[in-house]
Every structure is written in C-alpha cells, then in structure tokens.
Design goal:
The complex is a heterotrimer. Chain A is mainly alpha-helical. Chain A is built from 13 helices and no strands. Chain A has helices at about 1-30, 35-40, 45-55, 60-75, 90-125, 130-140, 145-160, 175-210, 210-220, 225-260, 265-275, 280-310, 310-315. Chain C has 15 helices and twelve strands. The chains are: A mainly alpha, B alpha/beta, C alpha/beta.
C-alpha cells in the first residue's frame, strides 16, 4: 500500500511539470504582444509595457521565462498581480479555504447519497424504486448546476426565505453560519455528481451480480445479504470510485460558477475577476492551483481504489 | 466421405447452434447469435448495424429523445419563420411578463423581448455550437487515437501521456482559462471546449483501436498481406465507429452544458448572439425580483441535454443488445424460479412416459409444490404415477440425488424455449455420474438446476422434481436452499479465474463457506481453509494469495478446496478440467480420484470429453438437444452403446481413429430448441433414421435393467461394430 | 500487382524444404514504469530449428505458454524474430520488408482459433473471404464472385453463406469459411492455430476431415498448432513438441507418439485420456508436479528439469544437446547421453525402475 502511494506521488512530478508548462504557455496565446495587451492595449503607457515586460521576464527566451516562473511557483511566488501590484500568492491563499470548503461539502453529499441511490436502484433493477432513482439521476445529469442553483435560490431563499440567498461565512468563524450558506451551493454542485456516481454503482452492481463468481458465492450457500455484502459490493464499488475521481474535476469546474452565483470569495470568483482584468499571473496561479487540488483528490481516490482492488496494489 | 457429409444440404436454412442453453447466465437467450435464425432467407441479410438500428427504433425512450432532438434542429433552422417576434426587438410588450401572457407564450425579459422567440433562436445556436465543437474535436482526436492505438510506437506513447496530463485539468477551468486568454467570444468558446474534449476522445478511440487490434480478424488481414491503410480504414475504423457514436451523443450534451456555462459567465455568446446560457445570466441578475425569468432557458438546456444522453444510452443498448433496465425486471436473486405447470408446448414435444426412471423407482407419493394444481399439473402427476409403477419392479437403491422429469425453460425472443426436457437420473452415495453432451445439449443447465442456480429470468423450472436425501429441492425456500448449498451439495465450475472473486484471497473465500455454515470465528475459518488447501496440494504460504496470483491449475485446486471444505456428500463438477492443459487436467483428475475415495462423496461430473468420462465416471448419461438419450454404466456405454449419437461421439474421437484416416462425422449440427421435431431429435443427422423415427415421439427404452436408450431401433442396430 | 501464374514459386518447385527455420528466437520485452524501461524478456521461442516440407502436415504440440502460437506467427513473419533465420523456398525472408513480404504472404496463410473473432463482424462474409483476392489483385466483379462461390463449395458451404454476417453462422461453418479465405489465393502452406479447439467433437471431425481432403487435392502444407496431442497425432506426418519456448522433441508422428524419447513428451502423452474405460484405467499416467515456470525467467540448464521425474545434476546446469535417434527423431534430453544413457530408446524403458512417476489403477465399478 505504501508502495502504491509512493508510486503515485512519483508519477505526479512529471505530471505537474507538464501541467505547469501548459499553464505558463497560456501567455503565448495572448493575442499580439503580451506585454502590450496585458498593460491595457495599444494606448497603454510605454513605461507600463516595459515594466510588465521586465516583471514577467518577457525579454528572456521562452524556456528561461518558464524556468524562472516555475522556480518562483514552487516557492509560492507567482509574481505580482498586474492590477493590485500585490503578490498573487497572498491573495490566492485567501481564496483557497472557501473553495476547498465548498468541494468538501459537496463530496460529503455526493459520496453517501450517490452510493445509497446506486444501491437502492442496483439491488432491484427494473423495480419502481429503481425507475424513480433513474428518472431523478437522468434529470440530475442533464440540468446545468447553475440552473439548479438558481432554482434553489428562488425557492428556498426568495419564496420560503429559509436560507440566505448569497454570501459566505468562514467555517472557523461560525460553523453553523458556514453550513447555512453552503447548503444550497453544495446541493447545486452535487446533483450531477450524485447522479453519475449512483448510475455507475447501479451498472456495476448489475454487471457484478451476473458474474460467475457471484454464482459461486450462491453455490457456497451465501444468503442474499452475505453474497451482496461479501462479494458484490466491493467489486461493484470499483468503477464507482473511479468515476468519483473523474467527477472531482467536473466539481471543481462547476464550483467556479457556483461561487459566482452565491458570491463565495473562492478561487473561482478570484479567477473570474482576474479574467475580467486580464491579470495573467493570477490566472496562471489559479489554474495551476485547481490542477493541484484535483490531482490531490485523485490521489486519495486512487488510494481508496487500491484498498478495493488487490491487482492495483500489487502492480 | 463426400461433401454431403459436411451437411451442406442439412443446414442451408439452419443457422446457428445457439450456445444459450449451455451458458448459465442465459443472456444470449434473447440476443446475439440466435437473433436471425429461422426467419427465412428474405430476412437474412441483416448486419449487426441493421440489427442495432432496428433495436434502437424499437426503444420508445430513445425514439422520444430522437424526435425531440429532431424538433430542436427543425426549430433552430426555421427559427426566423416560426418566431413570433424578432428575438432582439425590444419592448414587444411590457418587460418581465410572466409565462402564458397574451401574445407572449413564455413572457418577456428585462428589455421586453419575447422569450419564446429567443428560446427558438437559442436552439439554433446550441445545436450549431454542439455539433461544430464535437466535429472539431473528432477531426483531431480520431487520427491521433487511431494511430496511438493501432501502431502504439514511442511517439504515440508520448502523446498518450500528454493527453493523460491534460485530463488532470478540471475541464471547465481549462476552458475558462483558454477563453480568458484568447478573448471572450463564441468562436473562442468553441475552440476551448474542443480542446477540453480532445484528450477524452483520443483515449476512447485509442482504447477501442487497441481492443480491435487484438481481434483475430485484424491479424487475419495482416497475414493476408493487406496494406496497413486498408486494415485501418476498412476494418478498424468501422468497428470503432459504433462505440464512438455513443460517446458523441453524450459529448454533444456536454458541449451544450459547457457552452451554457461559459455564456452564463459572460465568456461565451454575447449580444446580439442568443444563447440559452446567456439568457440564464440575464435571468440570474433579477432572480430576487423576477424568479420566473429563468425557467424557460434552463428547461430548454436540461431537456436537450437529457435527449442527447437518452439517445446515447439507447444507442448503447441497441449496440450491445442489452435492454437496460427493462430486461432485468423482477430478477429473483440466487434461486431459480419454479413454476410447475405443464406448459402446453412441453406436452407436445415430450413423449408421454419419458419420466421413466432409469434406475430406481421414482417416489410414488409426490409432494406437489405450492403451485395451484391445474388440470395440466394433474396430467403430470398421472404420468409420474405410471412411471413409478413401471419402475417399481426394479430393486430399490439408496439414491442420494434423484432428478425426475426435470424440465427447464428459457425466455427468448420467440417465447419460452424448453432447454432441458424431462430429464431423469439418479446418483447413489459415493457414485460418480458423468453427464455428457455437446454445447447446447442442456447438460450445464441441468447441473445448475439441481442447486437452482440458474438466474430467473430468463429461466424457470416448469416440471419435475430434484430429490436430495428424500427432500424435493424445488420446493425449498431460499433460506433452506442456502443451508444445503456449499455444505451438503457443492459445485466446481469450468473457469476458475472468473468463478473466484478477484478481490478476495482464496483463504478468505474458502473460509467464508466455513463461517456461513459452521459459524466460528475468522481464525477457525482460516485454519480450516489452510487445511483443505493443503489437502488439494496448495502450500500454506499461498493461502493468502489472490486468484490472479495463482496458476490455472492452482486456481482450480482452490475451487475444489472451496467445494470440499464442508465435506459435501454430493459434488457437482461442471467441466472442471476443460479450461486446463492436459498435464494439469491429469493433476486435477488424480486429485479428484483421491478425494472422492477419502470423502466418500458422490459426483455429478458434467463434461463434453469422453476421455475424461472414461477416466473418472461410474455411470454415464448422454444428453442431446435437451434430452437424455442414453444412460448406462461406463463400460457398458463405451463398449455396447445403444444410441447412434453415443456411437457417433465415440467414433468422432481422434484417439480412436487410425492416424491420417478420415474421422467419422455426425453430419449437420445440433438443432436449436425451436427446431425440434416431434420425433427423434437426432433423426435429421442419424444415418440409421427411418420414417417412423421422425413422426413419433421416442421414449427412453430399457435395454437392460441398468441401460436405457432413446432409440426405437436399439435392438436391431449393431452399433458396437464400428467403434 | 502480379498474377498468380507468373510469380508463384511453388509452381517452379526448386528442391529443398518449403520452409526452414534455423535457430529462431523471439524475446518479448517486458516494459515497466513511466519510462517504459525493459525490465525483463519473455523467452517465447528459443533457438528453434524446424523444416516444413511441401504438402506435409507438421504438428506442433505444447501447453499454453509454450510458445507454439508465437512460433506459428514467426513462420508467417507476422512477428519479427529476435534472432535466427527463416528461409522460404531457399530464399532468406528473415529481413524482408513489407513490399517483398507481400509475395511471401500470398503463399502463406493462417487460420485462427476463435472463428467468431476471425471475421470482421460488420462485413458480410463475402467481403472477408474476398480480401486476399482484392489485396493481391486477383479477379474482379463476376470472376471474383465465381471464385468465391467455388471456394465456399470447396469447404462444403453454399454461395448463400457468402452474403451472411459472421454472427449468422455457427462456429464450425465459420471455421470452414476461414479455411476458404486462407485458400483463396492458393497458398503453399497454412498455419492452423488451434483450428478446432473451440468446436464441439462432431464439428471438430468435420473441419479436420476437410483440411485433410484439401491437402490431398491441393498439396498444401500445414503447420498444425494444437494443445491436444491426440488430434495432432491423427492429422500430422511429423510432430514437434514444445516446452517453454523450446522444441524438445521432433520426429515422425508415429515415432513421437508411440515411443516418446523426451520425459516431457512422455508425460504429455500419458496425460491424454483415452475414450475407453478399461484402457484408460489401466494405463500408466505420469502426473507432472507443479506448473510451467515463468517464461520471463526460464530455468537454467534443461528448461524441463524443475518438473522432470528423471532429473539429474547435469540437467540443472547444462543445456541438453540435440540428440538424433536411430528412427530419425531429434530429442533434447541428457538422458540419451548421460545417466542411464537411453541412447535413443523411449523414456518408457526407464519406468520399470523409477519410482518418480506415479501410476494408478482405476477401481472397477
């Protein structure tokens, strides 16, 4: 098991190197001369343009620029915000906890609810309750998360006035206020992930229940409970766990919009503001952070998968 | 032997000998290779694609989705003609009109524009963006994926590592960053989403190409000398298309959602372009005052994405022949369904006194099952009574297992098919009975029916009884059945790799049997598991291995250990050596010889291999087309066969023939269950068949007290001369 | 593209064997890790020398993992040999590149184990069977169709089968179609890779008879790969026995089958069951202990020494030499030159004195 973790960690180094290169290369996509564009276009002050050129090492060869940027990034130095002039990292740092909190709250919903719904429908395929779950999950996948968010706001906040429509309260200040403000964003963000996870578990169960080794378990004299708990669940959960890993990427992307709707001061809100202000160093920093968070969550998922699948553990 | 011996004339109209009856899961029963049989030449030219299309068109959900998408396209194209207002015309009415207002079906927005007209124009943009984006992604991903999958050289390996890395980007983050740098616009949105889609498509295409490359038909093309280009375009690409179509349908929905997301953030479509996502953005700004604004565009997005997904699922079902949720309705878990009423078709097909017990008297009094006695059931009772009287003159023996008149049906596209027809046999304590037959004979179905391990649906037991130690297993509730399974009756399956749980150690899997039946802690179970593993020759240090860490021979030994751990009095072995090499088969047979002696257990040995039967069985029952055609002690059967089919099987063995001589051939092939005539089921392939063989049902006749044969000419034919 | 009459070398028939493999080896690298470094090699085929004469059937027996399928593919040059030399009609084809290989391909064809995966499921059979004709530019339009119908008749099927899809035919019928495809361009030899192992007994006999009939009529040579020694014995002129990538014994079918000279051949043949209870229960069966070793790490010396009932010290350290017995059988075993010195006598001669092999008497019932 430790071997698996070490191998996964080792594999992350080239991955992050590559991803950071892609993130840094975004600058080459900036139309025209990056320095001019970033300084505000053709009517920008010449001195400003030169300052940006200097600040972003734009006079160096590309690979040198990248090396300097990466050297700073591993120490938490992403340069200075083109707008505020303050170090990017200091500002980004403050945006991390709200985003992580939102993702955590969402996963806390997704994992139990997704697995439960998957079990409910997968254990009795074709039954009424299976069909109800399938209908619900079909809708969950098709509805855009931001529309779900708007529907929740209009119903629970505008009509029923049970919950505050927007806003954010740090968890450390008041866990209950945090929770109150996280309920709707987390539900909106979790709907499609719940649907995907539960469908995967349902499909996994349906496949596993026809597997020869399940027949063996029946032949051994297992009761329904023993066969399902002792044999089917573990194997059926494997694809569901894989899908959960893939869904974290979707969740992180969706969180950008959800943060925007609920005015949560997280990475997404920060990213959108940076985009509006053409603040490239900030965009790069945030994009890289998202990848790091995603890779970290996937590492945890991989480890969980290793517990389920002995072949992965050994290989 | 002439070409007629190859049975040309016999099976021009006969298509596939369906494997169904011999596979336990019965999934093939209503699909796959049997699909086109017997429907006549006119309907024969149906390729897999045509079949899938037909299945798709029979799926109502997919049809609704298809219809909806078609409507969206039509509406999008014809928007200028249908829309009541110009979508950008302001103050067509008062702003913020609710839905169903006069002249404004869906109301008006903040600028008094007609929402209905805007939704129609939004459809146009959504479809355009989705299809164009997916097309761009495919144009780039398919060639890369194909080449990576088919050639798989170093460059392709590098490309795949890059796509893997790209997939660690949260898709929307990458798309937003790209649009941010390129500048917000619809065009850049499409480029960005395509970039996000490409790694996934590439991986999919590569995976499919890799799988197809492993198929023999690709190697066949290579060995023919076909140029690589031809192989890729004529063979690989078409075969990869169908899974791709499923993903494309789902990707169209994903693109629609992504475009809506970006437009919602103000990075995608901008006025005067009309996108459902952008409409939601406007609606969100006034949500506290006019929440009704967001219903229409949100619903439009959700329904269209739902339609794409439903269509994708429908195509997948159509391609795999699965029927999704509908096919598995009411599946009973772990116990074959028993419905003991005489089905009319069985009574026609089955000879009247087929239930003649072949060795021992059938029990005279029958505990009828809970099934309400119908007139047909009474008929069954009557017949069995007769059979019992006929057999009563024989000396009674101590049958451990007595199967009497067992009839099993499978649900197929053509209705219920009788796959096992009125099968009777007994096994004494400590005796080994071989159940022999080719694929499709019903031998495996019979063996699985004893423990009621056939899944229901598609199977059901419609008649007969299975008495074990005097109790009819067909009347037992699952609670009682599980007590017997694994402890008194155990089973060994053909393929030990798939029959063992890959995620658990063999010690754990064997220990489970102990814990489920004898109780006791995990420690006790592990000790027992190690003991029995040692008995089958697996050293203690291998006990904590997972199945994939063992060799094929060791896996089958572990399987046997698992069956024997509770010392059953009956072992059902379903082709236990078929998947093994001959030297490993010798090991396993040797082991079974030893264990059978040591544990004094009876074995029902299911196999197609007469050599194995000669090695290990005391008595043999030969099955053909769902019926037992001959039963005899092993020497009697091999030296004095009384049924032409047994003779044919023996003569076809290469061991028996003179080297390089022509092997004996039973012409034609095993009939499918809907092709059984009223007479002898072998008659179309039998060189001794006469007219009377084809017209009347043939009963199992008693050659001598221990030898039964289902042939009306058994005493006039001299079959042993030719073997 | 050339036509068959001008380039088919079998028609001009130079002397010597049709196909000759000399010291052919094939190693498959085992790659691991992110850098895909080669960690080990699987010794699929090691130092194999074999000849195949015109119109003969050479049977190749061995258990799964013995490398017999790899050897079949090497003979067709579907795989590149790691070392060694392959001659086809006296011409070295070891290093031929694609273009020149085409002419070899039209003389060497293959029939595969799984009839269902041997045909493109999306194409009607006519298209698959016609592929060799199309690729090698033979016939066209109605001439090609006529040739296809002739081929299907040759293998005992009818023209209507050509318009069906693979899923509409049975395994036996498809395997005959595979034979038809292999014969389409009149090759001089065909590699048959377990052609009947997925078929039922009665269908097996149909396909084997067909193959023999065609050999008589067309003079085609077969390399018949199978794991069932009884079948190989029946259908072959000569037999080669493979174990862990090596040929341990090769000789006439009669000699190898009745007087096996390698302990592995002897054990393998004794494990084949006989469909006669009296015979089966009274003959000696040698049960080999353990499993085939990992081909990525084959044992030193004689590769069979880990399971051999007659193992001697020399077997563990030295590779056995190739010994040619009086009846022409080549065998690689130290027993013929050291220890008891069999000097070409069958292994069975040792049994009387050895306790290593187990035998049993079946209980009469």
């Amino acid at each position: 098991m430790i071997g698996l973790v070490v191998r996964r960690l080792a594999a992350m180094i080239p991955l992050l190197l590559f991803v950071s290169f892609v993130v840094f290369s975004l600058i080459t996509l900036v139309p025209g001369d990056p320095a001019t564009t970033l300084a505000g276009g053709t009517d920008a002050d010449f001195a400003d343009i030169e300052a940006i050129r200097e600040e972003m090492n734009l006079n160096d060869p590309f690979l040198v620029q990248y090396a300097k940027w990466l050297g700073g990034a591993v120490q938490g130095d992403f340069g200075e915000s083109l707008l505020s002039g303050r170090p990017v990292y200091g500002e980004v740092k403050r945006a991390i906890p709200p985003t992580l909190g939102l993702v955590a709250a969402t996963l806390i919903l997704v994992i139990p609810v997704g697995l439960l719904l998957g079990l409910i429908s997968g254990l009795r395929p074709g039954s009424v309750r299976d069909k109800s779950v399938l209908t619900f999950t079909s809708a969950g996948i098709a509805m855009p998360s931001f529309w779900v968010a708007l529907l929740l706001v209009s119903f629970f906040a505008v009509r029923l006035k049970w919950l505050p429509p927007f806003g954010y309260e740090p968890f450390v200040d008041s866990p209950t206020e945090w929770a109150k403000r996280m309920i709707m964003p987390a539900i909106a963000l979790s709907a499609s992930a719940i649907a995907v996870v539960s469908r995967q578990l349902r499909g996994g169960l349906a496949d596993v229940m026809t597997a020869p080794y399940i027949r063996t378990a029946w032949a051994k004299g297992g009761s329904g409970h023993q066969v399902i708990a002792g044999h089917a669940l573990k194997n059926a959960a494997m694809p569901a766990v894989t899908v959960l890993g893939l869904q974290t990427a979707v969740l992180l992307g969706g969180s950008i919009i959800i943060e925007q709707i609920f005015t949560i001061p997280g990475l997404g809100t920060y990213l959108l503001r940076a985009i509006n202000q053409q603040d490239l160093p900030s965009i790069q920093a945030v994009a890289l952070l998202y990848v790091v968070i995603n890779v970290m969550i996937n590492l945890i998922v991989d480890i969980a998968y290793g517990f389920l699948n002995p072949k992965v553990r050994a290989a | 032997m002439s070409t007629e011996q190859f049975g040309v004339t016999d099976h021009i109209e006969v298509a596939v000998a369906d494997e169904v009856p011999d596979t336990a899961d019965g999934n093939g029963a209503d699909g796959g290779r049997s699909a086109s049989t017997g429907t006549g030449v006119a309907e024969h030219r149906r390729g897999p694609i045509a079949l899938a299309t037909r299945r798709l068109l029979r799926n109502p959900l997919a049809l609704v989705a298809l219809g909806f998408l078609f409507a969206v396209i039509v509406v999008g194209v014809l928007a200028p003609l249908i829309a009541p207002y110009d979508p950008n015309e302001q103050l067509t009415g008062p702003p913020f009109l609710g839905p169903f207002s006069d002249g404004h079906l869906l109301g008006t927005d903040d600028l008094g524009r007609d929402i209905f007209s805007r939704i129609l124009y939004g459809a146009r943009l959504s479809i355009l963006v989705s299809t164009a984006t997916v097309a761009i992604a495919l144009i780039i991903a398919v060639p890369i994926g194909l080449s990576a999958g088919y050639h798989g050289g170093r460059i392709e390996y590098g490309i795949m590592r890059v796509t893997d890395a790209m997939m660690s980007f949260p898709g929307l983050v990458l798309a937003i960053s790209l649009v941010a740098v390129l500048g917000p616009s619809l065009k850049n949105t499409m480029i960005a989403i395509a970039v996000v889609l490409i790694p996934g498509f590439t991986r999919l295409v590569r995976g499919q190409a890799l799988a197809i490359r492993e198929e023999s038909f690709i190697e066949a093309s290579k060995s023919i000398g076909s140029p690589t280009k031809r192989i890729i375009f004529r063979r690989v690409f078409p075969n990869l298309l169908s899974p791709l179509v499923v993903q494309v349908s789902i990707a169209l929905g994903i693109v629609l959602l992504a475009e809506a997301s970006l437009s919602f953030l103000g990075l995608g479509a901008r006025p005067p372009e009309i996108s459902w996502g952008a409409m939601l953005r406007q609606a969100s700004e006034v949500i506290l005052v006019h929440p009704g604004q967001m219903y229409a565009p949100g619903l439009a997005i959700a329904l269209t994405v739902l339609a794409f997904n439903t269509l994708g699922d429908g195509i997948l079902d159509a391609l795999t022949g699965g029927s999704g949720a509908r096919g598995r309705r009411g599946r009973r878990r772990g116990l074959t369904f028993v419905e003991r009423k005489m089905a009319p078709e069985t009574s026609v097909a089955a000879p009247v006194d087929d239930a003649v017990s072949n060795l021992e008297p059938a029990p005279i009094e029958r505990h009828e099952s809970e099934a309400a006695p119908s007139p047909m059931t009474m008929v069954t009772l009557e017949r069995n009574g007769e059979a019992a009287r006929a057999a009563a003159e024989l000396p009674p023996t101590d049958a451990l297992l007595a199967v009497d008149g067992l009839t099993v049906q499978f649900s197929t596209a053509r209705g219920w098919a009788t796959v096992v027809d009125n099968v009777s046999f007994q096994i004494r304590k400590g005796e080994t009975l071989g159940l022999v037959g080719e694929s499709g004979s019903g031998k495996t179905v019979t063996s699985l029916s004893v423990m009621r391990l056939l899944p229901s649906p598609p199977s059901r037991i419609t008649a007969g009884s299975v008495r074990f130690d005097g109790r009819d297993l067909l009347t037992l509730p699952i609670r009682e059945m599980t007590k017997l399974r694994g402890s008194r009756i155990a089973m060994v399956f053909q393929d030990p790799m798939s029959s063992l749980n890959p995620a658990l150690t063999i010690q754990h899997q064997i220990g489970q049997v102990v814990r489920w039946h004898d109780g006791g802690g995990k420690k006790h179970a592990a000790t027992r598991a190690n003991e029995v593993l040692e008995m089958v020759g697996i050293p203690k240090r291998r006990a904590t291995s997972y199945p994939h860490e063992l060799s094929g021979g060791q896996r089958q030994r572990a399987m046997i250990a698992m069956a024997l751990v509770c010392r059953p009095s009956l072992l059902i072995a379903d082709e236990p050596t078929t998947a093994l090499d001959v030297t490993i088969q010798a090991q396993v047979l040797e082991l079974m010889h030893e264990l059978r002696k040591e544990l004094e257990m009876a074995i029902l040995f299911v196999t197609h291999d007469l050599g194995v039967v000669a090695d290990i069985c005391d008595r043999v029952a030969v099955m053909y087309a769902g019926q037992i055609v001959e039963t005899a002690p092993v020497r009697e059967l091999f030296h004095h066969p009384k049924h032409p089919y047994t003779e044919g099987l023996l003569r076809a063995m290469p061991q028996k023939a003179e080297p390089r001589s022509e092997l004996y051939v039973i012409p034609g092939q095993v009939p499918q269950f809907h092709e059984f005539g009223t007479g002898c089921r072998l008659a179309p392939r039998c060189e001794y068949a006469q007219d009377r063989c084809r017209t009347t049902p043939i009963r199992l006749e008693r050659v001598d007290p221990v030898h039964l044969a289902r042939c009306i000419r058994w005493d006039e034919l001299d079959l042993e001369a030719k073997i | 593209m050339t036509t068959s009459t001008t380039t088919d070398p079998t028609r001009t028939a130079p002397p010597g064997p049709l196909l000759e493999l000399t010291n052919v080896s094939k190693l498959f690298p085992v790659r691991e890790g992110i850098l895909r470094r080669v960690r080990a090699h699987v010794h699929a085929v090691s130092d194999v020398s074999l000849t195949l004469a015109r119109g003969e059937t050479l049977g190749l027996v061995g258990e799964s993992g013995s490398g017999k399928s790899t050897l079949g593919r090497l003979a067709l040059r579907l795989l590149e040999p790691t070392s060694g030399r392959i001659d086809y009609l006296g011409q070295d084809i070891t290093n031929l590149k694609r273009g020149s290989l085409r002419s070899v391909r039209r003389n060497a064809q293959m029939v595969f184990q799984d009839p269902y995966s041997s045909f493109d499921p999306l194409s009607p059979l006519a298209s698959s069977v016609a592929e060799p004709l199309a690729v090698h530019g033979e016939g066209g339009g109605s001439a090609r169709r006529a040739r296809l119908e002739e081929l299907t008749r040759l293998v005992g099927l009818g023209p209507q089968h050509l318009d069906r899809y693979p899923s509409e035919l049975s395994g036996g019928q498809l395997q005959r179609m595979a034979v038809a495809r292999a014969l389409a361009i009149e090759p001089s030899f065909i590699v048959l890779d377990e052609p009947v192992s997925s078929l039922d007994v009665s269908t097996q006999a149909q396909v084997i008879n067909l193959l023999e009939k065609l050999q008589h009529e067309l003079g085609v040579a077969y390399l018949l790969i199978a794991h069932n020694p009884a079948l190989v014995r029946h259908a072959s002129d000569r037999i080669a026995v493979m174990y862990l990538g090596e040929i341990v014994e090769v000789g006439s079918a009669e000699a190898v089958y009745t007087t096996p000279k390698h302990p592995y051949t002897h054990a393998l043949l004794s494990a084949v069951t006989v469909p006669d209870p009296d015979l089966q229960r009274t003959r000696r069966r040698i049960v080999l202990q353990g499993d085939v070793p990992n081909p990525a790490d084959p044992p030193a010396g004689c590769r069979f020494h880990t399971r051999c009932p007659y193992v001697m010290d020399v077997c563990r350290s030295e590779v056995p030499p190739n010994f040619v017995a009086a009846d022409g059988t080549s065998v690689r075993c130290h027993l013929h030159t050291s220890g008891p010195v069999l000097d070409g006598a069958p292994v069975a001669d040792l049994l009387a004195t050895s306790g290593a092999a187990t035998s049993y008497e079946g209980s009469p019932s």
